[in-house]
Amino acid sequence: MFHSWPHSSYERLFLYPLFYFPKEGWVEEDPQEIIQSVYECIERTCEKLAQLNVDVSSIKAVGVTNQRETTVVWDKETGVPLYSAIVWLDLRTQSTVENLINKAPGKDKNHLKHKTGLPISTYFSAVKLRWLLDNVDEVRQAVLSGRAMFGTVDSWIIWCLTGGSSGGVHCTDVTNASRTMLFNIHTMDWDSELCSYFDVPMEILPTIRSSSEIYGYLKSSSMAGVPISGCLGDQSAALVGQMCFEEGQAKNTYGTGCFMLKNTGTTPVISDHGLLTTVAYKLGRDVPACYALEGSVAIAGAVVRWLRDNLGIIKSSAEIETLAATAGTSYGCYFVPAFSGLYAPYWEPSARGIICGLTQFTNKSHLAFAALEAVCFQTREILDAMNQDSRVPLAQLQVDGGMTSNRLLMQLQADILGVTVVRPTMSETTALGAAMAAGAAEGVNVWNLRSSHLPKVTCEMYEPQINTDESEFRFARWKKAVQRSMKWETTEAH
């Protein structure tokens, strides 16, 4: 399994090895660095296998999982990216989004939701592509001359691994396509009306495939000839890795952001409470797609990196658990880390981060505790919205991702949600999900994903330990702080 962003340890999760911040609100990656990290991953994997006396020829398939909305445009003749990859967190498209919403009937940001399952937001790929077409001459000229290729990170990786400009396969899977705003979640294909709305030429788009089939074969490296047969956006991969194959099952992944997905079966459920409707997975060409309700939080683990790198109150990400534990409370301090605006359930790009409730008694340990609570409060907002949409409250929440090694955070989460939090002992479910999709593909067939064949997973359980009144009081104060963060930033000149 190759992930465009290594998740090998709790500390590595917050290092942003490929992220750049060239301007305020801008977040970029270098597509060449991404693919080089993939090749390095391949070679290191082969070296490890050799040390374990495992023959590389025993590798039957590989899977790809990726940041879903991060946008890449490249020249199909030279194989050279035409611009940096614009990351899902990036806010440069705020004015683009406002212009798109202004031309919608009633200036409704949900104008396209009946087809896409998504609000018009800086989050999704189509607005990033629109910005590139409007602002980068190299991209515009490449499109006009028929040389441009567009894709999310999975498309870029698969194209490069299967030969690049010498016959590379230009494809994506349904989970990544469903995050572009150019994909119709009902027809399961690119939509000409959506492409027209964003003024995006359909010929630059990748072919849409299922999440589990052979797309092509590695053309070089120590794994040359091995099929690439699994492709899932990272949150869908975690859903598969958590084995949430039954309608009603849900997981929450704690990474840079926080992402809760609830399996809604083969029928898409359109949210009335600020959630996204997305394709969960399609595990084979001839099987139906499953859908999910999703709540997306922009800043979760990234707040720990901010405390470390920007404020310097911790030296390593893992230190936050010890520091927060020394306080045991935020002592009335509330932290809304709206560094990239607020995602679900608000979809408010004008929000900015605030810390409130400060007194002369407040110290760095209270701030650390408030940062962890912020992750939990944001998750509570998502869970409440999900319960309202589905009308079936979750009795427990399955969790994964690098932050789940923080036991204080997990206990806080159980306390604030008032439900059991279940953490598998193998928390790297994103990697596992991509591997499961790859191994289950027709022509590979090393896994069987029917429920009767799935292994039992050992887990840690966190039960709520505070009374409901205290939890509700703290949550109400949090929501008050959220309102203070709204409407802070505008696109007007400073």
Describe this structure in words.
Strand 13 (250-254) and strand 14 form a beta hairpin. The longest helix is centred in the last third of the chain and has 27 residues, at 364-390. The chain has helices at 10-13, 31-51, 94-102, 113-116, 125-135, 137-144, 153-161, 174-177, 192-198, 234-241, 301-311, 319-327, 364-390, 407-417, 429-439, 468-485, and strands at 2-3, 28-29, 62-66, 71-75, 85-86, 148-152, 171-173, 183-184, 189-190, 207-209, 212-217, 227-233, 250-254, 258-265, 276-281, 290-297, 334-336, 354-356, 396-400, 420-424, 459-462. The strands form seven sheets. A seven-stranded mixed sheet has the order 15-16-14-13-19-20-21. The chain has a four-stranded mixed sheet with strand order 1-3-12-11, with helices on both faces. A two-stranded antiparallel ribbon has the order 2-5. It is of the alpha/beta class. It folds into two domains: 20-209, Nucleotidyltransferase, domain 5, CATH 3.30.420; 233-493, Nucleotidyltransferase, domain 5 (2-Layer Sandwich). Helices cover 35% and strands 18% of the residues. The protein contains 16 helices and 21 strands.
